[in-house]
Amino acid sequence: MARDDVHDERRNEMRNERNTAMATAVADPISDAIADDIAERAASADRSEGDLAPDIADLRRGGWLTACLPSDRGGQGWGCEPAGTQDAFDALRTVGRANLSVARLFEGHMNAVKLVFLYGSETLGDQVSDAVHDGALLGVWGADDRDGPLSATPTDTNGDSGLKLSGAKIFASGLGLVSLAVVTVPDSDRQQLLLVPCDEIDRADPSGWTMAGMRATHSGRYDFTGLNLPGDNALGEPGDYACEPYFEGGIWRYCAAHLGAAERLYEEMRDALVRRGRHEDAHQQRRIAEAAIAIETARLWLVRAANEIEAEDADPGKAVLALLAREVTHDACRDVMATVQGALGMAAHVEGTAVERISRDLALFLCQAAPDAKRAKAAQALIAAKTLPEHL
């Protein structure tokens, strides 16, 4: 047996041993210990130069990053296997309650891992599994710099095919923390997914991220110009990214984070009213009930959508459930924010408080990914289905 073959065989044996060992280290999304620490640091991280590294380190130590891997890779299938759906949902809500900026990065990691194992080669899956077990945080960066959109040119070096990149991505969340990103490049009239390293700090420019909310996500610009990739870093075929039910259907993940933030706002309002002795006021009781109904309605819609989308061999038409769940979640979050502000008055706007920060972050996060276009898609699907939502 050749030396390289022996080396590969031993490496595979070590990987299998590690995966077996990791499978016994179960991350617990129900536990609030990690979330409590993240929430405690949220106020200090709420600035453009804020550092989420300690929070990602907590998720890493707690096994939450590896939990997003498939079970046969030492993970728990969070977001990529039917059995991991409920835990993934609860984990996203839990982090959303603690800090939406952290939730944004965690959701991106979960999404990227899913895309790799949906469309990537076995070899690429091995590489990503190793990287995540070693602590890597992944992301999905889709928005192009208008002045220099990302493109890929085929290359051939000594018979090895590859790709040379040019251009940049913007709104690239997690600059300085994300080390591997799934990105889109045009191929004819479709999009091709690539897995690319993004850990060169000189290529990152967070200065363009000047939003009032989600400040610590460092969602700036990353320039890939001149970067060379192996050809097998492509994920699937052009157009795979838009395949349903996983494209629009996958929005249940960031909606779960939105819901967690709305749940936290509800709890902050309820507890503040009790502390002030105003919880028996009829107007405040109405607000408490209305906010409770809003978050529970959104939760029920999202649980159904997540379970349907992540089921084995899910029908592409199920994506409409996630689109509708997004509408419900959006409205519920807006209603809860308005209700909390009505209940607490000026106290809801005190800078640096949890209510003010979470409301600011949530208001921005709800703008993600062309909500009007998604609403139109949902309406079109409903018209075509010619049935009640319960039968979708």
What's the CATH superfamily of the largest domain, by name?
A: Butyryl-CoA Dehydrogenase, subunit A, domain 3
How many separate structural domains? Answer: 3
Radius of gyration: 22 Å
Number of DSSP strand runs: 10
CATH class of the largest domain: Mainly Alpha
Report low-confidence residues grouped into runs of 5 or more.
19-24
Give the name of the CATH architecture of the largest domain.
Answer: Up-down Bundle
What name does CATH use for the topology of the largest domain? Answer: Butyryl-CoA Dehydrogenase, subunit A, domain 3
Strand/helix succession: HHHHHHHEEEEEEEEEEHHHHH
Strand-residue proportion: 5-15%
Structure annotation, total helices: 12
Helix proportion range: 40-55%
Described by its quaternary structure, the protein is: single chain
Biggest β-sheet description:
4 strands, mixed
Specify the structural class: alpha+beta
Distance between the termini: 56 Å
**Mean of residue pLDDT values:** 92
* Major sheet: arrangement of strands: 1-5-6-10
Shape descriptor reads globular
